[in-house]
Amino acid sequence: MKQLTIIKPDDWHLHLREGIILKNIIKFSSDLFCRAIIMPNTKIPITTIDQAILYRNSIYAALPKKAKFHPLMTIYLTDNISLNDLEKGYKNNIFFAAKLYPANTTTNSSYGVKNINNIYKVFELMEKIKMPLLIHGEVNDPNVDIFDREQVFIDKELSSIIKYFPKLKIVLEHITTSYAVDFVRENNIGATITPHHLHINRNAMFFEGLNSDFYCLPVAKRESNRVSLIKAATSGEECFFLGTDSAPHLRQWKAFCGCAGIFNAPVAISSYLKIFEEENALDKFEKFASLNGPKYHNIPPNNEKITFIYEPHTIKDFIEIKDNGKVQGKIKSFHSLETLNWKLKL
């Protein structure tokens, strides 16, 4: 029997939502990951210390009894974010990082920053206190093609942020282009890579009609970009690390309203391992999943280890969302009805 034992990974980009969805999906992440950076773009975004504490408490309350999982909370930056809350929350270990959503670039981002130049004072403070900045790297400009929005953001916004705040710790999240891969390498910043961007290119959204199951933001790009992401993830380079960007939507919203996001939490590690195995890079997986992220964020790796076994299995089509035992809806899993080879050893 083939098996792979590594230091237990962390997820450096995770959406857990709220309420019954949170209660039903948290187990998929807590089984596989020790820590996770929790995205703050809930329906009412997490912009204060009190909101972060309440959200964190709801996550702990939803965890399985024996779970050893630590949510790392983030503050949602707005044009008028409180510098006092940001600094106090970071120094008191309530906020692990701050999240920049340019306004209206993705799910629940309408409260995001409309003019990034107006929050340079925030970046100045974050650089001073050494607080990480996590970036959804896209512009919201109707004159920019959706497939170019990452590159334009890098050129128009990110380059200037790095120029004026060279010591600011930056993570460009869920990168999707060769351009971003090269930029991260050349500018001493970090980047997360999702499992779905390693598996799909933009054709997936149009296979057998318009397919919202593969619609996410940033959208998947050309095949050449996917190949660049694979090479980056499997390279072992310390600037690239695991971030699933798992983003669940109930079926009625995903299928009929086309909400952006791919729910990969139940299959995340199996999905990554498929790519690493195909690239003959299983020996590099621990760096990508368990070591590079903690090193970039100046925290120690986890002490616990976790084992995966080679056991081909078919992925369930849907995850049922239950409330008091009654099914309230369902969420489609990434790799639905596909066969993956690696699974957690129980």
Architecture overview:
There is one protein chain. This protein has 346 residues and is α/β, with parallel strands linked by helices. The protein has one domain: Alpha-Beta Barrel (TIM Barrel), CATH 3.20.20.140. Helices cover 34% and strands 19% of the residues. It contains eleven helices and 14 strands. It has a six-stranded parallel beta sheet with strand order 5-6-7-8-9-10. The protein has a three-stranded antiparallel beta sheet with strand order 1-11-14. Helix 1 links the parallel strand 2 and strand 3. Helix 3 runs parallel beside helix 4 and helix 5 packs parallel to helix 6. The longest helix is centred in the middle third of the chain and has 16 residues. The mean pLDDT is 97.
Query: CATH homologous superfamily?
Result: Metal-dependent hydrolases
Please summarize the sheet with the most strands: 6 strands, parallel
Q: Which sequence of SSEs, written as H and E, runs from N to C? A: EEHEHEEHEHEHEHEHHEHHHEEEE
Work out the strand percent: 15-25%
From the coordinates shown, what is the CATH architecture? Alpha-Beta Barrel
Taking Cα atoms only, what radius of gyration do you get, to the nearest Å?
19 Å
Instruction: Enumerate how many helices there are, as a single number.
Output: 11
Kindly report the CATH topology. TIM Barrel
> Widest sheet: strand order?
5-6-7-8-9-10
Beta-strand segment tally: 14
